[in-house]
Specification:
The protein is built from 14 helices and 3 strands. It has helices at residues 4-16, 22-39, 48-61, 64-83, 111-126, 132-151, 155-159, 190-202, 204-210, 224-237, 246-259, 264-271, 276-279, 281-297; strands at 166-167, 172-176, 182-186.
C-alpha cells in the first residue's frame, strides 16, 4: 500500500535532492495521484495483478508517449520506496512494461512558411502606417521568432533566458535546460544577431529591471502562453495552412540541419537531448523528405515506358 504522505515525501525528494524542475514535479504528482486513485478500488493493494490492471487502463486511455511517461512515474516511485526500505520488494521487478511504441514524426514549419512569416513581420515593422509602439512590439516578435528558428530553443528556455546569459557581441547563449543542465549555443547568422541587438537596445530598460531577455507588452518577463498566442496571431495573418506552435520551430531547426547532413551528435548537443535516441526521430523526417523528393521530382516517374497490365 502506498499512501499520499509517501508520495509527498517522494516528490519532496525529487524537488530538493534530485533538483527536478517544477513542470516535471507537477507531471509526477498528476501521474501518481491518478495511480493511487485507481488502486482504491482494490483497497489499495498494489500487487502484480492490480498493477497490470492499471497498465491496461492507461493503455486504453492515452497515447503511447503519455503511457510511457505514466509508467515511468510509477516505477520511479516504487524504486524509491524500495531503496528507502518503505516496502520490502518493488512489484515492478516481476512486471513487463516494455511495449513497441508507434513512431510519431515531429511536425515542422516548412521553410517557405517560415520565410513568409519573417517577410511579413519585417514588412510590418517597416510600414509607414505602423506606430512607434507597434514597431517596438513587432521588433520583439521578430526577435522571438528569429531566436526560436536560429537556435532550436524550447519555448520555456527562451522565456527564461536571462540577460547575463546572452553575449551580444559573440552571439553565444548559455541555456538552462531540463534538469538544470547547461549548454551553450551560438547564433550563426549576423542578420539574426543584429535584430537581437536592436531588440535588446530598444527594451534595455525593461530587461535591466527584471533580468529576463524577452519581455511582454507591459515590460514584464514574456510568458510561454503569450509567446504561443503571438505566433498564432501572426500565422493567422499570413493565412498559414497549419497551426504553428513555438515547438515546431525547434523541430524545423533539427530537421533542416539533418537534411543538410549535419552530424546527429552536433544536433543532439544543440537541442540538449540527454540521449541520442531522442534526436534520431529527425532522421525519419529527413528520410520522408527524401522519399517525397524522389516520388515527385525523379524523372523516371514521368517516363511513359515500361507500363504493363497484369
Amino acid at each position: 500500500m502506498v499512501l499520499k504522505e509517501e508520495v509527498d515525501k517522494y516528490l519532496h525528494y525529487c524537488e530538493f535532492q534530485k533538483e527536478l524542475d517544477s513542470k516535471t514535479i507537477r507531471a509526477y504528482r498528476m501521474d501518481l495521484e491518478q495511480f493511487i486513485a485507481f488502486m482504491k478500488k482494490y483497497d489499495e493493494v498494489m500487487g502484480k495483478e492490480e498493477i497490470n490492471s492499471y497498465l491496461l487502463y492507461i493503455h486504453d486511455m492515452y497515447r503511447q508517449k503519455t503511457v510511457k511517461r505514466k509508467i515511468a512515474s510509477v516505477k520511479a516511485l516504487f524504486r524509491y520506496l524500495e531503496e528507502e526500505e518503505i516496502i520490502e520488494l518493488d512489484p515492478f521487478h516481476k512486471i513487463k512494461t516494455k511495449f513497441k511504441e508507434e513512431t510519431v514524426l515531429p511536425k515542422i514549419v516548412p521553410r517557405s512558411v517560415i520565410e513568409q512569416l519573417l517577410d511579413y513581420l519585417y514588412k510590418e515593422m517597416a510600414s509607414a502606417d505602423c506606430t512607434q509602439w507597434h514597431k517596438k512590439m513587432i521588433l520583439r516578435d521578430i526577435a522571438v521568432v528569429e531566436m526560436l528558428f536560429a537556435t532550436g530553443l524550447r519555448i520555456s528556455e527562451l522565456c527564461h533566458l536571462q540577460r547575463g546569459f546572452f553575449d551580444s557581441q559573440t552571439g553565444v547563449l548559455c541555456i538552462q535546460g531540463k534538469g538544470g543542465k547547461e549548454r551553450y549555443l551560438q547564433i550563426g547568422s549576423s542578420d539574426v544577431l543584429n535584430i537581437l541587438n536592436a531588440y535588446s537596445q530598444k527594451f534595455e530598460k525593461n530587461i535591466k529591471e527584471h533580468g529576463y531577455f524577452f519581455v511582454n507588452r507591459y515590460g514584464q518577463p514574456l510568458s510561454e502562453q503569450s509567446a504561443r498566442r503571438m505566433i498564432h496571431r501572426h500565422a493567422a495573418a499570413i493565412h498559414a495552412d497549419r497551426n504553428i506552435t513555438p515547438h515546431m520551430f525547434r523541430h524545423s531547426f533539427a530537421t533542416f540541419l539533418m537534411e543538410e547532413d549535419v552530424n546527429i551528435r552536433y544536433i543532439q548537443k544543440m537541442l540538449g537531448h540527454a540521449s541520442i535516441t531522442t534526436t534520431q526521430i529527425y532522421t525519419y523526417v529527413a528520410t520522408e523528405k527524401e522519399r517525397e523528393i524522389l516520388r515527385t521530382r525523379h524523372p523516371r516517374n514521368k517516363m511513359l515506358v515500361g507500363q504493363i497490365n497484369l
